[in-house]
Amino acid sequence: MENKTNALKGEELMLIYKAHQPVKSAKKPGLILLLHGIGSNEDDLFRLAGEFPAGFVIVSARAPYTVSPGKYTWFELGFSNGERVINPEQAEKSRLVINTFISQLIDKYELDADKVFLGGFSQGGIMSYSVGLTFPKKVNGIFILSSRLLPEVKPLIRSKEELESLQIFIAHGTNDQVLPIQYAHDALSYLRPLSDHITYHEYAMPHTVGNQELEDVSNWILAKSH
């Protein structure tokens, strides 16, 4: 495997990122795009690149908004009367930026546009929902780790017919105290009428990424990319 680090400014690609490239072969590689959680950066999920299947360029992107040095977010988050309140303008901008970024990566690395998987942890999972469910032709599948579906995105979600080609993997820890597992149950209840292609797993873990979870995601990507 060849590791390459890319820190490209906006005039080249929309987001700063790190990329893990497979050994060159006759086949065009696919894309696995990883989105980190709030207050993290591209290094966080990039360390997991070796856990994913061969035959893909694995990209870990940095969110565009700065929380503090080395810590980034896809949108600012606050609380009002015990409820989570997002910055909707930032969330929408990030949704559109990620969509464009996928196209840029496909062009830059000459990737197979029919083998694109988008996933993330926590807030990165929120953005994976937001992009995949509103641009379902852009990605083959989304994998959502310990996350939630934004109410603000629901009006933008495409029809069941348009979502027919989108594979969805949802995973959550039963002991998650940051985003309780009810968020996963709520997303399932909302999405099941819209999709017959949902895979769901629960794990006895807190708000984290688990080894068994990663193995399950990797196997799911392999199964859905053929």
From TrEMBL:
Molecular function (Gene Ontology), one example: hydrolase activity
Top-level division of the source organism's lineage: Bacteria
Pfam families: Abhydrolase_2
Keywords (A to Z) from UniProt: Hydrolase
Protein's UniProt keywords contain Hydrolase: yes
Domain Phospholipase/carboxylesterase/thioesterase: residue ranges: 25-221
Keyword Zinc among UniProt keywords: no
Family, similarity comment: Belongs to the AB hydrolase superfamily. AB hydrolase 2 family.
Classification via PANTHER family: LYSOPHOSPHOLIPASE-LIKE PROTEIN 1, LYSOPHOSPHOLIPASE-RELATED
Protein name: Phospholipase/carboxylesterase
Native organism: Mucilaginibacter gossypii
Organismal lineage: Bacteria, Pseudomonadati, Bacteroidota, Sphingobacteriia, Sphingobacteriales
